[in-house]
Write a structure and sequence with these properties.
heterodimer; A: 114 residues; mainly beta; seven-stranded mixed β-sheet; four-stranded antiparallel β-sheet; B: 109 residues; six-stranded mixed β-sheet; five-stranded antiparallel β-sheet
């Protein structure tokens, strides 16, 4: 597609369950980012990929959070043993190359942990 | 580390009014970006600024790159109801862009 896509658009899960969130970046974009946005808050950086490697994982809030990117394209963000405080919108963005280039965002996945 | 502060945090305005918001940094940036996030959507790039003092327009939006390179301003003229949303500034950090906390705009018809 022409833009960044994310799936699912909405996810409701029970506390303690694992969830996987998917991001399809713009074709040809080598840089990919995950952010978290809690209700009424700004964007919290989680992780950055350049190709398949992650030079910056500094934003992952705990070891329950992990992300991978395969084939330099699709990325999956996994949250294990979800907690209620994980409820948020998870946004993915991609940029053509270097991290300094403009980022284009997907619509986000709204996660609700009951 | 680098921080971006946006003000105001939120504002209610009447349709037709002009809006001004700003973003300040604790350090110098070489690029400033302004994004808008509609309710329920991801942020969309509005304007990119690459040079100190630069003034760039996009329709009713005008943004300026402050000459100190530590601030940027966004103005919206003759606001309309669809201007509602959250406006974020962003500047490049190491490996990633740093985003401000956002200015939440509500337009009263």
């Amino acid at each position: 597609g022409a833009g960044v896509s994310q799936s699912p658009s909405n996810k409701v899960t029970e506390k303690g369950k694992d969830v996987e969130l998917r991001c399809d970046p713009i074709s040809g974009h080598t840089a990919l980012y995950w952010y978290r946005q809690s209700l009424g808050q700004g964007l919290e950086f989680l992780i950055y990929f350049q190709g398949n490697s992650a030079p910056d994982k500094s934003g992952l809030p705990s070891d329950r959070f992990s992300a991978e990117r395969t084939g330099g394209s699709v990325s999956t963000l996994t949250i294990q043993r979800t907690q209620q405080e994980d409820s948020a919108v998870y946004l993915c963005a991609s940029s053509p190359g270097a991290a300094e280039e403009t980022q284009y965002f997907g619509p986000g996945t709204r996660l609700l942990v009951l | 580390g680098q921080q971006l502060n946006q003000s105001p945090q939120s504002m209610f305005i009447q349709e037709g009014e002009d809006v001004s918001m700003n973003c300040t940094s604790s350090s110098i940036f070489n690029t400033w970006l302004w994004y808008k996030q509609d309710p329920g959507e991801g942020p969309v790039l509005l304007i990119a600024l690459y040079k100190a003092g630069e003034l760039t327009s996009n329709g009713r939006l005008t943004a300026q790159f402050g000459i100190t390179r530590k601030d940027s301003f966004l103005n919206i003229s003759a606001s309309i109801p669809s201007d509602v949303g959250i406006y974020f500034c962003a500047g490049p950090g190491t490996y990633k862009y740093i985003f401000g906390t956002g200015t939440r705009l509500k337009v009263l018809a």
